[in-house]
Design a protein that fits this description.
Order of helices and strands: HHEEEEEEEEEEEEHEEEHEEEEEE
Mean pLDDT: 88
Strand order of the largest sheet: 1-2-3
Number of strands: 21
Largest sheet: 3 strands, antiparallel
Number of domains: 1
Low-confidence stretches: 1-8, 38-45
Length: 322
Amino acid sequence: MNPSTENAAAPKTPPMPKKRNTILLLAAAVLLVTALLVYFKEKEAPKGFMDPSRISSSYYHTVWVKGDGTVDSVGSNQFGERNLERWSDIVAVDTTAYATFGLRKDGTVLAAGAITAVERQLHRMRDLTAIACGDDHLVGLKKDGTVIAIGSNSEGQTDVKDWTNIVAIMAGQDYTLGLRKDGTVLFTGDLMLEESARNIAQWKYVKAISGHCNRAAGLRSDGTAVTSWDTDKYGDWNDISEWKDLKQISVGWNHTIGLKKDGTVIASGSDEYGECEVGDWKNIVLVIAGSEHTIGVTADGEILATGDNRFGQCDVNGRYIR
């Protein structure tokens, strides 16, 4: 052993390079951010909550699809429109005043209630990805972007055989709308107001559509809205031309509801039954405008309601869509 080094102090650990310190700090930051993202993602509503096709509310009843593919409902059952206990594998629902329609995973359709106008043709509704119903007609969107419609054609509401490149459909009282991939909207039938067809033909950059009775509206990609009715013709009543930062829009009989990107809700139009009393709603992920009432779904799946409840269509206290 070299005597000059026998009792020498152990060499000190060299200082950690600054570059290595920086790498470790960055790695820790990435782990922290990832953990936070996972945490907040768990707090968000499951994607299914935000699908408007999972809940529908007509004049007399409200229906929604639960997480297991079964269906729950409240309100009137005068014509058996709520006899849905045996339904399963449902992915979407739509309602008329006296009927309920459900789209199954296999692309077929179930129906309950007053369905005389379409009952004999229901077997034609196959390979569908979406459904929409009017008073006496039923519309289906096929996987290839074409559309099929059955039932009454008194106003031309089922004249959709030439439609292509459709990504969403909507049916009103006696009319049908089809949203195309390019953001324009096709229309057939009767919306009663003379300006409706002209206005809809001018819609551009639309990413979602909604309607009820003789009114329709579109949500544009910039978060603003377009309507089938002339707001300057009818004054401030139901004027939504200044709405912005919208995530969803839903049209009722005489009122319109808008869901903003921050989870708050705005309303315009008739408030005779309190259907526009949504100013204190928070953390909302989905809204549905019924005839004279409004339905909302919170981030945890709770269903809210305000407005006309004469038939129990708003008896959703303690109910969840999950």
